Amino acid sequence: MSTRLLLRRAIIPIAGLGTRMLPLTRVVPKEFVPLAGKPVIQHLIEECCRAGIREVIFIVNKNNRPLLEKYFDPQHARYMRSIKSQPAQRNAADLETLMRTMRFRFVLQQKPLGDGNALLEAKRFIGRGEWFFVSLGDLLVQPSGSYIKEMYQIARKHNGYVLATDKVPPHQVNRYGIVEPAKRLGARLLRVRDIIEKPEPHQAPSNIALIGKYIFDAGIFEELERTAPDKKGEVKLAYAIAAILQKRKKTILAYQIRGRHFDCGDWGGLEIAARKFQPATKPL
Ligand code: UTP
């Protein structure tokens, strides 16, 4: 199969401030919060690995860069191997697989000027016509991996961008980007008319929420470059998607995941994940 037909790369922006998890995030980046025996970021990378992705571009800041470089380094796997406890050995095996099969790049976002601004930092690594996966750094999905492959197949079939979604309780819609559906295309698939950022419950067009996982091609960078910063000076990915919808430049599809999502970016979400998240039983 031609490599262009494979989904090779993921971009993971993790250069934000993590203010919802203060005071911890003054000292510990939120992606290193432990969940079921591993930092959240390792679960995220394992999900990419299971989907066949072979390169991860982390968009980092000055604080978390040294930690990530140390964590995703072959030395770390070797060190874990030298510790003779069972959990260390199990973790070493997964880390070794990640180190053997994946390549990691670390790209600095100078200032936290929004998730869209962070994504633009990866533009130079993505080829024309290449499709790639984007995951925000604090959202996990179970079952992992297979949904990414399904999203990619949908993107290819419809030549459109695919946004992972999950249904949320109506009183929580004001915490998410919410999909206004245009047309149902299948049991798990909708064409999107609009995305409403954090609407009040009575104004929400649905309870179908974006969960920070996307399949794009390089066209998203052009739109991000045209997207004006908001009042805080931040370039938001959601606004670029809304602009594409408005100009009808590309079909945008909402894919309902099979399992459930976990938002590990605030204390409440992390508590739910700590109770419900099931660690993968099979080694990578
Ligand atoms: P969030 O909207 O959750 O922002 O970003 P945040 O800074 O992480 O957390 P809060 O809201 O202050 O608590 C979604 C993802 O985009 C990344 C974040 O690191 C997170 O993975 N991001 C956000 C960047 O990489 N750069 C930014 O400028 C903003």
Q: Per DSSP, what share of the residues sits in E-state strands of 2 or more residues?
A: 25-35%
Residue windows where pLDDT falls under 50 for at least 5 positions: none
Return the CATH topology: Spore Coat Polysaccharide Biosynthesis Protein SpsA, Chain A
* Average pLDDT rating: 93
CATH homologous superfamily, by name? Spore Coat Polysaccharide Biosynthesis Protein SpsA, Chain A
Number of helices: 9
* Biggest sheet features: 9 strands, mixed
Number of domains: 1
Q: Structural class of the secondary elements?
A: alpha/beta
Ligand list: uridine 5'-triphosphate
The geometry reads as globular
Describe the protein in words.
- The chain is α/β, with parallel strands linked by helices.
- It has a single domain (6-277), classed as Spore Coat Polysaccharide Biosynthesis Protein SpsA, Chain A (Alpha-Beta Complex).
- Helix content is 32%, strand content 26%.
- The protein has helices spanning 40-50, 64-71, 74-82, 86-101, 115-120, 146-158, 219-226, 237-247, 267-276; strands at residues 9-13, 34-35, 38-39, 55-60, 103-108, 131-135, 139-142, 161-167, 177-186, 189-197, 208-217, 252-256, 260-263.
- The chain has a nine-stranded mixed β-sheet, sandwiched between helices. Strands 2-3 form a two-stranded antiparallel sheet. Strands 7-13 form a two-stranded antiparallel ribbon.
- Helix 3 packs antiparallel against helix 4 (86-101) and helix 7 (219-226) packs across helix 8 (237-247).
- The chain is globular and about 55 Å long.
